[in-house]
Amino acid sequence: MNKPTTGPGPWQVVKSVAAIITPLTLITALMYYFGLIHAYWFFSTFGVDYTVFNLSPEDYIIRSADGLIFPFCVAALAILALTWLFQFIAPGIGERAIHWITLVVVPVFSVLGIGCVVLAGFAFLKPLDFVDTPAVGGLALVFGVLLLTGAIRAMRRLAERASTDRPRASASWVVAEWTAVIMLVSVGLFWAAGDWSARVGKERANQVEDQLDTWPSVVLYSEQSLNLHEPGVTESVCPGVESAFGYRYDGLALITQEGGQLLLLPRAWSSTNGTAIVLTKTDSVRLEFTPSTSPAPTTC
Questions:
Q1: Which of 118, 205, 221, 253: disulfide with 215, CB 3.0–4.6 Å?
Q2: Residue 59: exposure state from Cβ atoms within 10 A (0-12, 13-18, ≥19)
Q3: What pairing do the DSSP bridges indicate for beta strands 285-290 and 277-280?
């Protein structure tokens, strides 16, 4: 039996790509993209366009951590579990057992791989059908490609055992194969993490709505009337010509300050009934905060 020759594999392809694209640059770009998706869905839940806040690249990168911590931890734990399992089982498996395992792997991995790829295709063509199951399409693509790759490699192993003079694939074909596999797996992971970031951004906005009554109260003072007449928001005129801020608004909660803009919600706001308020932070407005359990000051 011919011994397997050393040829280009996935790590050689990864090293070649890394020589062209700096890993740090790629990671930064991915985090920027995931943070942008997170911001889009967070602000759109309040009916606000995220571009209003003029977020910086650093803001997007910081936001991406909220959507990526969970999938990164799951991926790391899965890799650790597989590594430990392989180290525990592999030394006790003989050549004959490997042969029978290979015979089983080919049909099982082929069927499962094709099923996963088909599922990924449906998720791509009809994304609205998978709104409640984020990341399914991307993960289906990842597992489908990996399963089919495993089935193909198992078939090659069986063919090499059956025929000692079988010609091996050239190095260029192997490189092309592994490049395609790595690209598809990367796209699947990118797709899954993007869907997850969108889901997390929307869930964070829903948490704000559910916990709005526990947020600190904000009293907004303004030099000029802002004509805020939303449900639950009251406008008062501060007496006295010496008052620098002639108008006061109660019944608001500050959600976030981004890019010099203030996102305020009325206490009675809901996703089905209410309007979000975006104000530019200037010297003409002033904010005073009180705990939700304490009464707001009654005087200007």
A1: 253
A2: middle
A3: unpaired
Q: In which residue ranges of the chain is pLDDT below 50?
A: 1-6
Does any domain span residue 295?
Answer: no
Same domain, 134 and 152: yes
Q: Which residues contact 221 (CB under 8 A, 6 or more apart)?
A: 238, 245, 247, 248, 249, 285, 286, 287, 288, 300
Contact indicator for 259, 54 with CB cutoff of 8 Å: yes
Within this chain, do residues 199 and 154 fall inside the same structural domain, yes or no? yes
Tell me the CA distances in angstroms from 142 to 72, 119, 163, one per residue in order: 15, 11, 32
Q: Are residues 86 and 231 in the same domain?
A: no
First CA to last CA across the chain, in angstroms? 91
- For the chain, the domain total comes to 2
Q: How many CB atoms lie within 10 A of CB 165?
A: 5
Dump pLDDT digits (tens) for 148-201: 998 988 888 777 776 666 666 667 777 788 888 888 988 998 899 889 999 999
Question: Which range of residues forms the domain containing residue 261?
Answer: 212-290
